[in-house]
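May I ask for a sample protein chain and its fold as tokens?
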Amino acid sequence: MEDFYANRGFLSLSYFSTILDQFTRFTVPLFFFLSGFGLTLQFQGKPIPLLKYYRFRLVKILAPFLLWSLLTGFRHQEFILGMPWSQDPWGTTRSFLRFMFLDGFDYQYYFLIVIFQFYLAYPLLYKLGKSRVWMGVFLAIHLAFMSPVETYLELWGLELPKIHPNILLFHWFYCFAGIHAAYNKGFLANLLARWSRRRVVGFWLLTVLLLNFEFVMNILNEKYLYDADHFNRWAVILYCLSSLMLFMKTKQTVAASVYENPRWRFLFTHVAPFTFFVYLAHTHVLRVVDYLLWEVTLFDFLNRIILVVAGSYLLAWFAQWLLEDFPRLRFYLGLPNKPHLEWSEVPGAGLFKIKRQVPTGASSEGQGAGVKSLDSSSRRLDLSSERPSV
């Protein structure tokens, strides 16, 4: 994207990458939407005492955030050690805490920073989700700080106040929309009932074109890349709405072809449970791949995507396998609670199945005990759920 921003080559791999990035603009806002929706359903079904809620929710985010920040801190050690700790300890501590808890030690940590704020504010505001008036209020506030408002203000010689982008203000509307949807189960249902699938797809395609058109026009108007590309754009709100409608309209088809199909079961057993860890760890894999691939051709670009995704999940699976007996450390790393991996459910794992031999000459009872002992002591090397034949 930086290459396209600098050279503006429309017939280039950089522009293809830019379109692909714009295509993913729905991901983070809809995750916040689902967070508000799911958390509200949980509160409605079984209210949680406030202290218990904070102890579980905040620690669940804060513990991995602190550990991964520590693991990532080596990239900033020159900057951190160069800060004036002895001359101005209090001022330096404030700057360090701002750098860690607001800027983030790595680019993807903004998500943890925002979701932590959401969990902190949720018990104080979730009851407002019943009201359409508050839905309108938060939408109005959201739109007031979104692009292209700054463009119109520039015509009057004005500008938006400088507010850090990692505060909840810029993401709260998506969370609140999920809360509102949980209180109002018919949210979007009436609109979807009147719209055919073709009409929903057409609306989605229109918002995709609008999203990319706005991005290109921002660059041609020489906006900074950060101002040209972020989630906080009116076009992104429309794109998120159309994406949500498309998912809801096709949910039965998706459920029948993916969710209920045994072929795709591994997505829910060996992919989805590790997404939090992969999100936290993938930048380290990304930098290794960056060193190996210069990304100058389409082949390099596609291989880069494959290697980062595959490498991140291999790291996640290896960490889960290595830390089977350390649940607390798995929790701090963002790994799932389930300690064991069922390798037989992963496509292609059978190619790496390890055959284990049982010593001959033993009685059937002794063989059975030997198999049990061998299976217990060698379970970490077994890549299938099958018992060895005796």
Remarks:
- DSSP finds 20 helices and no strands in the chain.
- The mean pLDDT is 85.
- The radius of gyration is 25 Å.
- The chain has three domains: 2-47+106-249, 262-341, 342-390.
